[in-house]
Amino acid sequence: MLTVLYRVLVLPFYIRNAGTFGLVFYFAFGFMRPMDHEALIASALGSFFLLILFALAWVLYTARTVSFIRGQLAIPEHLFLQTFRLVPIRRRCFYWFVLFTQLLLPIIGYAAWMLARAVHYQSWASLLFIILAVLCLLIGSVLAVDYRLLRPAPDTVRLPSLRFRLPYELFFPTYWLRHEPLSLVFTKLISCGILVGICRLYPTDDYDQRLLLIGLMLAIITHSQVGRQLHQFEQRYLLLLANLPLSVARRFGQYALIYGLIWFPELLIVLHNGPISVPVYYLIGLWLTGWGWIMLLHSLGYSRSINPDRWQIAIFWGFIGGLLAIMFGWPLLAWGVVGWLVAVGYWYRSSRRRVQL
Amino acid sequence: MLTVANLTKAYSGRTVLTVPALLLSPGIHYFQGGNGSGKTTFFRTVAGLLPFAGQITLDDRYEISRDPVAYRMRVNYAEAEPLYPDFLTARDLAGFVGRAKLAPAGQVDTLAEILGVSTFWTQPTGTFSSGMLKKLSLLLALLGKPRLVLLDEPLTTLDVATAARLFDLIRKLRDEQEVSFMLTSHQDVSLTGLTLTGSWQVGDGIITPLP
């Protein structure tokens, strides 16, 4: 039973969030060195406020896992999981506990590191706080998902139905907002946060426009999983799309509009926070380049069954390559032209493959 | 009407369907076969939903790969088990598909009345029963000016009254507009009253004519 639960609930969570994990691990263990973590942990152990911040971050992650599991319990193909409620409560809670231990491994791992340092520094109050925080998260998660298992299909608060005809370009953004709101919020928060941070950092030293390009590349990477989400959405709910008489160019145009909408907040962000010394046309060019590269990621990933791990590795090496190209002074115009041209070219090439082997 | 040549469909390297040559004349064609025999795979391939090797040509003119837009303008498909985003309404989906298929003015309303979709026109599909979803998928498959309509299990979950109206409509489209149909069903198709042009057996990855 545990194996089935693991394959149905735990594995899909890690696969679905592989992009986010890749990015977080890259920053947490790529940019930050182990000694930086040690310093951070030492500070947290000595400051209750910092410990609370850690706990808040853990609560956010746990909320994401709980929301995912509750969502999985509600989808039609997982109706068979309703039989799980027939399992005696003690055993059921034990299974949930094991599952959430697997789901919260990133938290538990980091907490274990903090506990080891707490013992080292003999910071017993912090040690107790961390143990209690992790236990509360585990128990709270178990209760939250078991509650949903026992009370399926609740009358939840839903976003109101729309009274106008929804154009196709809004199908996926609406789905994303309604069905995976946390993913949408996290993606946009991280992407916009990076751009705001880079824009604010720019005037503080003798930086040039390469810094903005690096920020742009990081913001694009936060959208690297969107193509897969869009593809899964269409494969599941809009099979008829492939039967519609739409030309390759029109299909590309429709996707460009969808991504343009998704990427639009970043335009407002760069225009509002752009450094005074950087001209507006450059900021608009920066946004257009980002749009082109997101379309390129879409063209590369759409309709290909790429292993998420391999996709993340490719994104990582792409980032390294991009970083080098930026350092060697590749101009914005070149980035923009290459992004859009390859996006269009690859889209045409792969469109034929989608019909004919 | 439809010519299939050297068609091979494989999943992960395993061939599931082979059709060396198949010629379907205009009319109504019935495909039968057990569960997992490849009927839906064949229908989805003809509808242009799945990649394959080979050639599929409509009216000796429109080849699925060479003329992807013109072919899809004339070939429509209704799924056996339709599923749509739960926040969209029949109005949203019919508007989108109707525009793409260049549905004549008033066609959507007429079909919605016949199939009984108008009663839940602005309801999100998440509130639909399986029969309501089926009615919507049939409506979408009849939009535009198709030359060939593929109906995968059209009778499943459909109520008797709507099924009767659907078959009247199929008969009318066949007689007045020369629309051809391919359909599968696990129910007794003789009860539909349709005059079949051809019957085919799908099994073991091949398609053979039934006597």
UniProtKB/TrEMBL annotation, chain A:
Key words, A-Z: Membrane, Transmembrane, Transmembrane helix
Transmembrane segments: 13-32, 39-61, 94-113, 125-145, 181-199, 252-271, 280-302, 314-347
Protein known as: ABC transporter permease
The species this protein was found in: Spirosoma utsteinense
Automatic annotation (TrEMBL), chain B:
UniProt keyword list: ATP-binding, Nucleotide-binding, Transport
Residue intervals of the ABC transporter domain: 2-211
Domain of life: Bacteria
Molecular-function GO terms, alphabetical: ATP binding
Signal peptide bounds: none
InterPro entries in the cross-refs: ABC_transporter-like_ATP-bd, ABC_transporter-like_CS, ABC_Transporter_VariousFunc, P-loop_NTPase
Presence of the UniProt keyword ATP-binding in the record: yes
PANTHER family named among the record's database cross-references: ABC TRANSPORTER ATP-BINDING PROTEIN ALBC-RELATED (PTHR42939)
Protein's name according to its UniProt entry: ABC-2 type transport system ATP-binding protein
